[in-house]
Amino acid sequence: MAGYSGTKQDHAMRLRRIEGQVRGLQRMVEDDKYCIDILTQVSAATSALKSFSLSLLEEHLAHCVAEATRKGGPEAEAKVKEASDAIARLVRS
Question: How many other CB atoms are there within 10 angstroms of residue 21's CB atom?
Answer without folding.
Answer: 17
